[in-house]
Amino acid sequence: MQCSSVPTALKAFPLARLLITRQACSKLFIGGLSHDTNEPVLKEAFEQHGEIIEVKVIGDHRSGKSKGYGFVQFMSEKSASTALEELNGQLLDGRNIRVFYANKDG
Fold first, then answer.
1. Distance CA 59, CA 50 (A)
2. Which residues on adjacent β-strands are paired with residue 74?
């Protein structure tokens, strides 16, 4: 699986392209989360694969419960890649989660 693409406007700026690609390749989208899954639970599941910069579970503003998806950003692309391979389809809080590279294009 490949990381998200670099916007055409940035192709003329190699440093910007490197920074954006690196961030896109180290940030994962996690779908299929239980509505009871919170950030500490998500972090614990993913931190075995490397150092994490940020964990975010997207929640409903009214109930505070998870909307069923979130993001995990690792310090390294290798850690993100390993986590994606190892955790995609695995059980977390009673649900099979889906793990993809986060799309920086939208």
1. 25
2. 52
Residues in the chain: 106
Nearest Cα residue to 74 out of 39, 96, 93, 48:
48
0.90 surpassed by pTM:
no
**Mind listing the domains of the chain with CATH numbers?**
27-101 (3.30.70.330)
Per-residue pLDDT of the chain (106 residues; tens, 9 = 90+): 456 444 444 455 555 444 444 456 899 999 999 999 999 999 999 999 999 999 999 998 898 888 999 999 999 999 999 999 999 999 999 999 999 999 755 4
